[in-house]
Every structure is written in structure tokens, then in C-alpha cells.
Predict the structure.
Amino acid sequence: MKITKGNAFAIATGTAAAIVVASALTLIVTRPAIATAQFGTETGKACGDCHTNPKGGGALTPLGEKFKANGNKMPK
């Protein structure tokens, strides 16, 4: 296939469009959280003990930071 200026432009714009679409999809498509409430069930602690949001998720409290730094085990 002989590449002309017109073909090169079409290939470049098609590639750019594909990159834009792929980038937009990464912003739109969400993944479910992989965390579970198993820790809370096992220990009787509320999600808000480790997370600033009482329902869990998001930023961690100082206790949550210690828990994470301790390999997901309660600090002593």
C-alpha cells in the first residue's frame, strides 16, 4: 500500500481518535471496590474506625493508616 499525504493524515487522525476514546473510557468505566467488610465483621469494629467516611472507603483515619502500615493487621 502506497502511503500518500492524505492516507498518512487519515491514519494519524484515526490513531489520535482511538487514543482519545480509550482515554475517555478509562475515566468513565469504574471498577468495583475490592475491599470487603470482613475485617469489621471479624473484629466488631465499624468502617468509620479506619475510614473518615463512616460507611467506609476513601481517606483513612490515623488508626486506618497504622492498620495499613502494619500489613492490614491491628496495630499493637
In short: Residues 17 and 23 are 10 Å apart (CA to CA).
